[in-house]
Design a protein that fits this description.
Elements: E1 8-16, H1 20-37, H2 45-54, H3 59-63, E2 71-76, E3 80-88, H4 92-102, E4 110-115, E5 134-138, H5 142-145, H6 159-171, H7 177-182, H8 189-199, E6 200-201, H9 209-222
Parallel strand pairs: 2-5
Antiparallel strand pairs: 1-3, 1-4, 2-3, 5-6
Helix pairs in contact: 1-4, 6-8
């Protein structure tokens, strides 16, 4: 019987910026799971992506302990990808864990996967970020941002922003999900939004370059005479 008191679980992934393949696998799984939970899976992919990007959870949905959506955020800093995700422990999160393990590349591009099936939570931390993963592209690596002296001058940077950057950096030094919880290293939704406002920049072509390359290669296989410049991305 599902745990109705603490039905949610969380997972943290952080891995090399160059590992676009794993990023694509995780994001596609999340989109598929959320579309199914919200009964949007009958739409074509382009329509579905637009629907998820604009979908706003109602107050009841945010508080629901049975709505099987995955919420969370994705931070890109040029060195690493961070994905902090949450959902119903015995629902889509089970598949997410299995999916990521099954598709994990056999190289050193995957750094850390923090998950503990014995740890559960009474409520979502990121319901306010809705169902299309909140993506934050930082203008430079977190390690470099933390070296800036002005970051620590009072009132120069909002406290929630500084807290978020600090917590994200702390996560990279932890080995277990239990350590993340005990050290209070999960940033809140408000912290993530504040960090995005202060240090966020638009996503770049390079952030998803490998996915585009795959599209080009697929097109070239279909038509060997086709040059990359002829492929619309």
């Amino acid at each position: 019987m599902p745990n109705q008191v603490c039905p949610f679980s969380r997972v943290v992934y952080y891995f090399s910026y160059s590992n676009k393949a794993l990023l694509k696998q995780i994001e596609e799984y999340v989109s598929t799971a959320n579309a199914k939970a919200l009964k949007l899976d009958h739409f074509e992919k382009d329509v579905l992506d637009a629907a998820l990007s604009t979908y706003k959870l109602s107050i009841e949905q945010k508080k629901s302990r049975t709505l099987d959506v995955i919420t969370g955020f994705h931070v890109i800093d040029g060195n690493l990808h961070w994905l902090v995700l949450e959902g119903i422990k015995n629902g889509a999160m089970v598949g997410l864990h299995q999916h990521a393990q099954r598709n994990q590349p056999k190289d050193n591009k995957v750094l850390v996967h923090l998950f503990d099936s014995s740890m559960t939570f009474s409520k979502r931390l990121y319901a306010g970020l809705d169902v299309d993963l909140c993506r934050v592209r930082l203008h430079q690596p977190i390690t470099e941002i933390l070296k800036q002296p002005l970051l620590y001058v009072r009132d120069m940077v909002p406290k929630k922003c500084l807290d978020c950057i600090t917590k994200m950096h702390q996560i990279t030094s932890l080995k277990k999900l239990r350590d993340v919880v005990h050290s209070n290293s999960f940033p809140t939704s408000e912290m993530v939004i504040s960090m995005s406002r202060e240090f966020g920049v638009p996503l770049t072509y390079d952030d998803f370059e490998e996915q585009h390359k795959e599209n080009v290669e697929t097109a070239k296989l279909a038509d060997p005479q086709m040059e990359p410049a002829e492929v619309e991305i």
